[in-house]
Design a protein that fits this description.
This protein is an alpha/beta fold and about 150 residues long. The protein contains 4 helices and 8 strands; from the N terminus they run E-H-E-E-E-E-H-E-H-E-E-H.
Amino acid sequence: MALLSGEEFHHLVNVSRVRAGEIIRLLDGAGGMYEARLAEIRAGEAFCEILSRERAGKAPEVDIALAVTKAHRFDIAIEKCTEIGVRKIIPIRTRRGVWRGGGSEGLKKRERILRKIVSACKQSGQPFLPEVADLHDTASLVRTFSS
């Protein structure tokens, strides 16, 4: 049995308008794909009966570093990287970039990136959720990968 609540419940019931008895596909972000029947909907919770489990092939082995650009373009890049199946997304701070990182701004941007990744996984059926690294500058990125 799987329990969906919060944003996942909202998406399932209000956006996708799935009703009790319907068959759905669930992803766990680690390569697991599940076929499930929506058994019951309660206030803020959906109970799903797992019918079958499938394991995706090998996890991706590609990391990609992306210069942080304006929100719309960066969102598209995040979505496409997620859809093709990268293992890790590394945001890079550049001289002309729009995100300087740090503090509450950095936390908000990171949460936005994670929401975009989850959304892209749902939309494309990508079973692997990429990791999002901390914001790097070019010099720290080179040091990380040269050691």
